[in-house]
Automatic annotation (TrEMBL):
Coiled coil (residue ranges): none
Protein name: Threonylcarbamoyl-AMP synthase
Main location: cytoplasm
InterPro entries with a match to the protein in the record: DHBP_synth_RibB-like_a/b_dom, Sua5-like_dom, Sua5/YwlC_C, Sua5_C, T(6)A37_SUA5, TC-AMP_synthase_SUA5
Cell compartment(s), UniProt: Cytoplasm
């Protein structure tokens, strides 16, 4: 762990080359993806991967997502059943993670998969992340760049506030476009299972792959990281119901509120703003010594499903 503040890198050639060099040297670099910022390290380097768990305070039984630049790298790491191929063709690069059988020859640190026979793989769309992956030339393990159980980071400032000097560098490419994490899917012989709602909507998946198995039950742990309390601000979160005096209110659609996810009731905008608004609500709650953040109801469709999943976990008993 370094004692100094992380180096800030720009999203230009120089920043990309420096980020790739730090990864090659076993460093921890926060990288922008289209979903959220990731805390990246060389997925083949045990010591570097161990530093991810240490920096986040993440339990070692919770495996990491591996990010790669192209399909050739996917094929080297995992077996691709037909269903996975169809999903990859439709949605990669993009906000989708596939849980696939791990090849024995993949060369990943065993810490990445936490001993599971499967690996979570993602081919991200963010041009800066893709440029770093190409310059580095290897698989990159990257969980969301927040302390374990806390609000995810969609801006470089969130990363610095949450992880600070534990990260060697932060590549700042501005706010993330999607704003919620990738959708996690597991193609299995019995059908396609949805392990985490996310930036790729269930409706889009169904159009390409047919029905997905309804495996996302609140409180049920499918992906080991889907513990019920997650994305938690410092103060309590309440969903729906009447605002109580002194609450910090987060609105959706027109109407008075301290902070608003989308004035027009647009779910895409609300997803983009979700974590930034939760970070801001937390700061406001501290300033006003409020006891709770009260969030308006969000429709449970499209990206609203991923938003509601995050909000339910943010509101879950700790
Ligand atoms: O959008 C995203 O997915 C971001 C960006 C940085 O890529 N990453 C992210 O990582 O959200 P993280 O670590 O916060 O969430 C990864 C989730 C965890 O719930 C973990 O348990 C699950 O993926 N996971 C990883 N490997 C798995 C596996 N082999 N089987 C099932 N779940 C797995
Ligand atoms: Mg996370």
């Amino acid at each position: 762990m370094s004692a100094k503040a992380p180096t800030l890198l720009a999203p230009d050639r120089d920043g990309i080359v420096k980020a790739a060099r730090l990864l090659a040297d076993g460093g921890l670099v926060a990288l922008p993806s289209e979903t959220v910022y990731g805390l990246a390290a060389d997925a083949r380097n045990d010591r570097a991967v161990a530093r991810i768990y240490e920096a986040k305070g993440r339990p070692s039984f919770n495996p990491l997502i591996v990010h790669v630049a192209d399909m050739a790298a996917v094929e080297r790491i995992a077996e691709m059943p037909g269903a996975a191929r169809r999903l990859a063709a439709a949605f990669w690069p993009g906000p989708m993670t596939l849980v696939l059988p791990l090849r024995a020859t993949a060369g990943l640190s065993p810490l990445v998969t936490a001993g599971l026979p499967t690996v979570a793989l993602r081919l991200p769309a963010h041009p800066v992340m893709r440029a770093v992956l190409a310059a580095f030339g290897g698989p990159v393990a990257a969980p969301s760049a927040n302390p374990s159980g806390r609000i995810s980071a969609t801006r470089a400032e969130h990363v610095i506030a949450g992880l600070g000097a534990q990260v060697d560098a932060v590549l700042d490419a501005g706010p993330c476009a999607v704003g919620v994490e990738s959708t996690i899917l597991a193609p299995a012989p019995g059908g396609l299972r949805l392990l985490r709602e996310g930036g790729l909507t269930r409706e889009a998946i169904t159009n390409v792959a047919g029905p997905v198995q309804e495996d996302v039950t609140p409180g049920k742990v499918e992906a080991p990281g889907q513990l019920s309390s997650h994305y938690a601000p410092e103060v309590a979160v309440r969903l729906g119901g009447a605002a109580q005096p002194g609450d910090i209110t987060v609105g959706f659609g027109p109407g008075a509120a301290d902070l608003t996810l989308s004035e027009t009731g647009d779910l895409v905008e609300a997803a983009t703003r979700l974590f930034d608004v939760l970070h801001a609500a937390d700061r406001l709650a501290a300033d006003r010594q409020a006891r709770a953040i009260r969030v308006s109801d969000i429709p449970d469709e499209g990206l609203g499903r991923a938003i509601n999943d995050r909000l339910r976990r943010a509101a879950a008993p700790r």
